[in-house]
Amino acid sequence: MFNYILRRLMIMIPTLMGITLVVFVIINLAPGSPVEQKIQQLRFGGMGSSTISDAGDSKDNAVSEEVVEALKKQYGFDKPLHIRYWIWLKNLVKLDFGESFTYEEPAIDIIISKFPVSLQFGIISLIMTYLICIPLGIFKAIKNGSVFDISSSIMLSALYSIPGFMLAILLLVFFAGGDFFEWFPLGGLIGDDYDDFTLWEKIWDRIWHFILPLASYMVGSFTVLTILMKNSLLDEIKKDYVRTARAKGLGEKKVYLKHATRNSLIPIVTGIGGFLSIFFAGSLLIETIFELDGMGLMSYKAVLERDYNILMASVFIQSFLMLIGNLISDICYIFVDPRIDFS
Q1: Residues 8 and 156 grouped into a single domain
Q2: Cα-atom radius of gyration of the chain, to the nearest Å?
Q3: Model confidence, pTM
Q4: Is 22 contained in some domain?
Q5: CA dist., res. 16 & res. 20, Å (int)
Q6: The pLDDT of residue 41 is above 70
């Protein structure tokens, strides 16, 4: 087992290099570099006639060559692409992702500042999803074909067909807009008087603000995990070892919960490793609708503004967490099914 984990960790190094190399080349070859955007700001921002040339065919010619070269040197674009990537790799060893072109602060500091919003929703949605979906899926399998199973399946299918952002809009209109009900706030994480609240009032205020966006975050994965759990358990109870357990006189409850459920969790374990990715969970549309300044909105702005350092930092961290998560999923297989051997 130790050798397997060591091999997987060693494989992560070239995998991460390959991912970052591809992303680095793509974003640096895409049009609209930070230098070009800065030149546009100089041209149309009223920076003075001293920096604007008398004539020119291209937009680069509208700014003096000295200014263009200074901008390229400032942003590191005065070197070839492969040299820039090598410099980025050397800085990566020191966990230095460079400075954000937009915020003019270290990229890692910007990510950390947006981190709590997405982290809160990611962790809570993960816990809520697994705590509700697994028992619900087991109960649906036990009551397969009953009125409860059919009605809950219809409801889950209806929820799954609604995109998260559309559900967010509907929830705001019906429960926060005031036209129907005004039970929840329109957006944000805390109320205006949050600092004046007592501890329990602060907790309740956060819960109150969390309910609608959390429902929008969970709607897709909630249905998938419930149906997956149900179908996995239904497949298990058709196998010979379950028939043998029943033939020995074991009760249905013991057959389901002790014997079949453990093996039916194997497909569910596949997604457990993804819990690390919740650290960077984010949805642009949901965060925009509920006025949440999280990772989704930050990544979208970084793409629009060509903030390469934030993009590369996000890609590297998310890729690393994804690879570690996959390794954790493999290890979890062993705890669920000891017959699995990775040696």
Answers
A1: no
A2: 26
A3: 0.70
A4: yes
A5: 6
A6: no
